[in-house]
Amino acid sequence: MTASTLPTSTSQSTVNPIQKFDPAIFLANAGLGRKLLILKAKETFFTQGTPADSVFYLQTGHARLTVVSERGKEATITLLGPGDFIGEDSVATIPGLRLATATATSACTALRISRDEMMRVIHEEQGFSDLFLKYLVMRGMRTQADLVDQLFNSSEKRLARILLLMAEFGKPGEPETLIPRITQETLAEMIGTTRSRVSFFMNRFRQHGFIEYNGRIRVHKSLLNIILLDQPAGRRAASAALLGSAKTKEKGKGRTQAKAGVKASPKKATRRRGGQN
Q1: What is the pLDDT of residues 167-198, one digit of tens each?
Q2: Cα 172 to Cα 200: distance, rounded to the nearest angstrom
Q3: Residue 256 placed within a domain
C-alpha cells in the first residue's frame, strides 16, 4: 500500500478551535490518527487473521471482502464502493483479529483511521456517530437481505440482484450503468453457483436486452425496473418476465404450429400424454 497526504493549503492546515465538526471534512482529509492511502487494483487493505487495529473509509474506487476456509476455499462476502467503511468490526469492545480480507478491485483512495481515533470521534462527535450508526444499520439490512436472497431466491434471481447492487455504484442519471470489473468466477462465489451457470444466465440477460457486456458489464434500466418492482405478491410474474421462459416458449410453439397446420396437433397431444405419464 502507498500512503500519502492530501495537498493542504495554509487555510486548510490552520484549525479554527471554534469551528464546528464536519464529518465530511474529517473523512476527506488526513490528520491525527488518519492517513490517506492510494491502492492499486488487487492490493489489500488488510488480510484475514491480522490485528483489527483500524477502520478504512473508501473515498474512491471499489473493493471486495473475502473469507478463506480452513481447507483453503475462498468466498466473496460483499462488494464495497465509495462512501463505505471497511473493517468497521475493529471498533468492537475487545480488539481482535480480522475476520476477512479486503482487496481493491480497482484503483482506490481510502482514509485509514486508527482504532483509537475512531473510538474518540464516535464518543465525542455526535454528527459522526450518527453517520457511522446509520451506515452500520444499512450494512445490517444489506446482510439480512443477502441471507433472505440466498435462502429463497433462485441462482438466476440472485445474480440479477448482485448486478443491481453493483449498478448503484454508477453515477446518478446515467441511462445505462457500467458496473465495476468483476469476473464470472467471483459472481459465482457470491451467489453460490458455478461459473458455467453464471455464463448461461448472463447470456440470457443479454438476449433479453437487460445487459450487455464486452469486457465491462452494462446494466440497462429494464433489468433495474423488473427486479426493483418485484414484490412478493408479484414475484412469479416478474420472475417469468425476467427469465422470459413460459410466455416466450409458448409463443414460439404457437408460431411453429401455425406454420405446420394440422400436423402440429398430434405432437401436442403426444407431449400432453407424456406429461401425464
Answers
A1: 764 445 554 578 888 889 989 988 889 999 99
A2: 30
A3: no
